[in-house]
Amino acid sequence: MSKTIAINAGSSSLKWQLFEMPQEEVIASGIVERIGLNDSIFTIKYGEGQKYNEVLDINDHEFAINMLLAKMTELNIIASFEEITGAGHRVVAGGEHFKESALIDDAALKLIDDLAEFAPLHNPAEAAVIRVIQKLLPNTINVAVFDTSFHTTMPEVNYLYSIPMEYYEKYQARKYGAHGTSHRYVSEQAAEMLGKPIEELKIITCHLGNGASITAVDGGKSVDTSMGFTPLAGVTMGTRSGDIDPSLLPYLMGKLGLTDIKDMIDILNQKSGLTGLSGISSDMRDLEHSDKPEAQLALQIFADRVRKYIGSYVTVMNGVDAIVFTAGIGENDANMRKSIINGMTWFGCEIDDEKNNVRGEQRVISTEDSKVKVLLIPTDEEVMIARDVEALK
Ligand code: AMP
């Protein structure tokens, strides 16, 4: 038996899925939340709807993985550690170096460490998890799957910022994008749904979750994406501002009495977006249930920013065959999908209200005569990670 674990480690959480490969069957999944805090939550789903739940203090990722492996044997999900022959790790920043998923050797791990400058909250946690797996499962192959790889096909005309060229040449200051694994998965799925080779399609993928990004996928390759040097850029998000004029920063720092730019960036990352605009919540559901005008305005701004990126990517690709919605909001929020597409009748793109009245199901949600197809495709980054491990085994 050959099992692969797909691991998505954040700074204080660890999500995972265990697959039987190559049949891509999910045999267990789980999440460890609040790592490093009191009352961490450890959850496993397995078998026929069985669940294991425990609340305890989990101080670090090493403890979390030790506990995970022990519980997997205790619950008979695996008979021994040797069954796990592959581990795939989501890594946020791969810089310019990692154009695709990579087997992790000492050199690759050092590069992941070095790229921490580009993703200070994520890469160190991901590298730590890789080291723990190397120690506990010495015969398991480790593969890194980067959020940025899919976007390394962007042409320089789209990834360069209009700043002195030497900043790119000396310091690699450029657009990298994120959510690459999700954009790759849904664009491939879209081509399958449309029954056409991906090489012949122009697709705009909208990953709308707590973090949100829009990508122009031309012939199967990312040619532009809304996130930038970091995932702070692009559309309005749950707590992130998305694009703003950088001159606002010193102005606001002066007004707020801030002296450390990090504090200002924290505000843009954690207190802005839907949370900042509405003063209520980062969650779409809370805003939709609120009758406060600020909540309604936040929803309009979100839809507007996404619509503008879609419009600009039609221009980038000189056309579009399909627009895809995915992730928490994209998969579940029919009102938001409608509100985004509503302003797009000018290029023959129309939502079918009945087909759109659905959550989390892969299907076409545009009308029969809509020139541009609109698709709802639940994302599956984990299966993509497992596939990449399989390909490198
Ligand atoms: P994600 O980051 O992909 O897990 O997406 C999380 C976001 O999806 C949440 O913050 C919500 O805003 C949104 N979401 C989840 N379920 C729904 C729903 N039923 N209706 C509207 N928004 C939802």
TrEMBL record:
The keyword Magnesium is annotated on this UniProt entry? yes
Q: Which GO terms describe its biological process?
A: acetate metabolic process; acetyl-CoA biosynthetic process
Site label Transition state stabilizer, positions? H179, R240
Q: Which residues form the active site?
A: D147
Record-listed ATP binding positions: K15, H207, L208, G209, N210, G211, D283, M284, R285, G328, I329, G330, E331, N332
Question: Can you quote the record's cofactor note?
Answer: Mg(2+). Can also accept Mn(2+).
Whether Nucleotide-binding counts among this entry's keywords is yes
Mind listing the GO molecular function terms for this protein?
Answer: acetate kinase activity; ATP binding; magnesium ion binding
Source domain of life is Bacteria
* Binding annotation for substrate: R90
What's in the keyword line of the UniProt record?
ATP-binding, Cytoplasm, Kinase, Magnesium, Metal-binding, Nucleotide-binding, Transferase
Major localization class:
cytoplasm
Q: Which InterPro entries match?
A: Ac/propionate_kinase (IPR004372), Aliphatic_acid_kin_short-chain (IPR000890), Aliphatic_acid_kinase_CS (IPR023865), ATPase_NBD (IPR043129)
Q: Name one GO cellular component term.
A: cytoplasm
Catalyzed reaction equations: acetate + ATP = acetyl phosphate + ADP
**Top-level EC class as recorded in UniProt:** transferase
Q: Where does Mg(2+) bind?
A: N8, E381
Which HAMAP family did the record assign? Acetate_kinase (MF_00020)
Please give the function described in this protein's UniProt entry. Answer: Catalyzes the formation of acetyl phosphate from acetate and ATP. Can also catalyze the reverse reaction.
Mind telling me what this protein is named? Acetate kinase
Identify the species of origin: Vagococcus allomyrinae
